[in-house]
């Protein structure tokens, strides 16, 4: 693991969670962290791991899995570049709640509990900003639960595409991963995506879906 270089520090400072902090505090956190590289399919950490801390995606994408009944792991989300996630046993709580696996070759910034404590000794606002991150994570999870509970499968697909697109115009996700996150078969996903493509709402590519008419997808979600 290596510390970020100057260009990588600037990229990290531009991530919204860091950019929203006092500059001196964000710089201290970034200085205390390390970068790791993971190839597609390689683990970053597993659900139940005792060592906690933060992750920020600099390049690539990460898949998030959680344990489901029947000892089955299900993918619940994909973290794109610029996303930050984590928890701290120091701040309360317990072991890791999710398994994180690289979806593509990735560069990930990591910040351990020890590094958080060291930075917080000089910048107590670290704990306030960590609490804000935890609230955002809880809000995201509740939104996912609402989508799964309230929407029929086709509308769930539209909602997932909009969430993954992140106003960038492209959802970097395979149809197989979409099927797992929506909770339907890949055949069903292929059919709905084909319909959306014929209507000019999306353009399909290898491992990606280009969103051409987000308003049309929002209409599907709204029913």
TrEMBL record:
Protein name (Swiss-Prot/TrEMBL): CRP-like cAMP-binding protein
Source species of the chain: Caulobacter ginsengisoli
Lineage: Bacteria, Pseudomonadati, Pseudomonadota, Alphaproteobacteria, Caulobacterales
HTH crp-type domain segment(s): 151-215
Domain Cyclic nucleotide-binding, residue spans: 17-118
Gene3D superfamilies reported for this sequence: Jelly Rolls, Winged helix-like DNA-binding domain superfamily/Winged helix DNA-binding domain
Keyword Cell membrane annotated: no
Pfam families: cNMP_binding, HTH_Crp_2
Keywords: DNA-binding, Transcription, Transcription regulation
């Amino acid at each position: 693991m290596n510390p970020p270089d100057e260009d990588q520090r600037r990229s990290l400072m531009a991530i919204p969670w860091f950019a929203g902090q006092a500059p001196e505090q964000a710089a201290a956190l970034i200085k205390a962290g390390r970068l790791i590289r993971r190839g597609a399919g390689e683990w970053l950490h597993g659900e139940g791991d005792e060592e906690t801390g933060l992750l920020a995606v600099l390049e690539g994408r990460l898949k998030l899995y959680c344990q489901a009944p029947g000892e089955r792991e299900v993918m619940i989300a994909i973290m794109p570049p610029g996303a930050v996630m984590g928890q701290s046993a120091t701040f309360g709580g317990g072991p890791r709640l999710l398994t994180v696996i690289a979806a593509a070759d990735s560069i990930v910034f990591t910040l351990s509990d020890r590094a958080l404590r060291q930075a917080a000794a000089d910048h107590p606002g670290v704990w306030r900003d960590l609490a804000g991150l935890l609230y955002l994570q809880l809000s995201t999870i509740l939104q996912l639960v609402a989508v799964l509970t309230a929407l029929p499968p086709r509308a769930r697909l539209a909602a997932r595409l909009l969430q993954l697109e992140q106003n960038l115009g492209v959802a970097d996700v395979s149809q197989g991963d979409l099927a797992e996150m929506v909770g339907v078969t890949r055949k069903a996903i292929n059919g709905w995506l084909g319909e959306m493509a014929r209507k000019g709402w999306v353009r399909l590519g290898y491992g990606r879906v280009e969103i051409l008419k987000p308003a049309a997808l929002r209409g599907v979600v709204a029913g």
